[in-house]
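QA checklist item 7 of 12: single-chain prediction sanity check.
[x] sequence parsed
[x] length recorded as 279
[x] structure emitted
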Amino acid sequence: MGLILLIAMIVQADGDVLTEARALWLKGSDDEALELLEKEDATSPPVAVLRSACHEARGRSKEALDALAVALAPHPSDPDLVTARARLVRQSGRAEEALSLLEPILKEHTDHLGARWEQSEALIELGKDEEVLPQLEWFIDFYNDRQPTKAEDLVLIARGAAEYARRTRAADEFEFILNTLLADARAADADHWPTDALAGAILLEKYNKAEAIPLLQKALAANPSSVELLVLLGVSSMRDFDFPNGFNFAKQALEVNPNSVTAHCLKADLLILDERVDD
């Protein structure tokens, strides 16, 4: 869930306007957040990352990159700006370039959780399994050494730990991820909906629909424009051969972001299963 990375980077935004804009973005009111940010300094890294995130949520990749470029000119080494750019570059199919962008950032900011996760994502996409495993294990070591308490940090660590558990077939670790890492994140901030989103996604992955769906629905109530949540719920409907609901979730996701690859894949899978291959 890509949104988790952006939330972790934007959490430290200072100032009343930024705080309000971040709250609007978190509940899916992206264009309202952009309006609020119009009079803010576009070269400020937190402003640029948030503006970029609002555009990205709506599938406007060029505008998202442009927002970052304005701030990168005076702040070329800012870790949040570079990480956000690397994310967009990777999503455009240039994972190697993303790794090149992140390398100097991680030399200077070794504990930057966002950059660490983005590096892992790029390595996964490139199929560099031997290289990605120690990067994922880093999240577990970081948690054990630092014992972070912020919900945003715990959710990102849980994401890394979950991927490590999948790759090492350590199924028992998911109990710790769900009942310790994400439970602590929920205790730290009960309104932080990405906690429930990740927990629901993991439970759905484990075919525990009874517990997963209420968590995903709760998260969607907090952000009705989350493409990732809409797609997850659509996938669950598809698994139950509930095609009308599946198509409805896909439609909602594509209305938010017409360029969402995952939403288009969901719609294509539904059409195939519904024997509508000509569509």
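[x] summary fact logged: The CA atoms of residues 111 and 142 lie 8 Å apart.
[ ] second reviewer sign-off
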